Amino acid sequence: AARLADGFLASAGGGAFGETYRKVREALDRHGRGDEAFPYVASGVAFVHEEAGRAREIVGPAIAYQRTRYAEWGTDREKPRPEPINEEDLPWERYLVGTPEEVADGLISLHREAPYDHFCFWGRLPSVTHEQALENLRLFATEVAPRVREAVGREPA
Description:
It comes from uncultured Rubrobacteraceae bacterium. The chain is of the alpha/beta class. Helices cover 46% and strands 12% of the residues.
């Protein structure tokens, strides 16, 4: 990526986000591109609700379904299918799910770990209703994004 690409999309939920950022920056330096603009984009699950518990109730089934599908797709055909992921086993610390304050704090922490340029997330996870998705996006745009921009010193795109 550092030699040919014009940016990097990194998973923000796997625990190696900062380490990946440092590796990308080192590779850019090795290829003489350390001074270039090279967007580092964080990708993850974000869902905002006024009540943290309700946020988890809404997206828990969707995240469990999505993780189960990814595990199946990543398994060789001749291997046994992985067991389904249960909602109660989800590592919630990997997801930005909660109140506007909690999600904003998570994004600010993530930015301190690795100063990403953009954050992308599913606007509507499986089983989330249209109305729930719209409310999530409204809260993200009006309450989360301004807090994050203010904390990390960024202007709106």
